Amino acid sequence: MPRFLLDTNVLSQVMLPLGDRGVVDRLRRDHAHCAVPSPVVHELTYGCERLAPGARRTRLEDFVREAVCGALPILPYDAVAAAWHGRERARLERLGRTTSGADGQIAAIAAVNDLTLVTMNVRRFELFRGVAVEDWSAG
Question: Rounded to two decimals, what is the model's pTM?
Fold first, then answer.
C-alpha cells in the first residue's frame, strides 16, 4: 500500500550522476511504499521527448518505462482529484495566490489518496491545505 507520492524532481535524482544521496537512499529503502501521480509521468515523458535521439534519451526513456511505470503504481488525476483541485484552486485564488496546474494536480492526487507528497521543492506545495509534504534530500 503506498504511503508516499513522488514528485518529478525526486525521481530525477536516480538518473543524475551525482543524485542527492538522501533521496536515492530513501527511495531504495521505501520504494515499496511509493506511487507516482500521472502528471509526473507526463512531465517525465515530455522531458524525454524534448531530447534529441541518442543514448541519453534512450536511457531516460528506459528509466521511465521500467523503473517508473513498470515498477511503481501510477495514480490517476481522476474526478475526485479534479474536484478537490477545483475547490483548492478557488480557495487559493480568493487569497490572491496562484499555483501551477501540474502542481495542483499532483497535490490533489496526494490529498485524495491520503499520501505524503515527497518533493525537493516543498515551497511549491505549501499553499495546498491538507497535503503532507516531505523533502528526502540530504541537504
Answer: 0.94
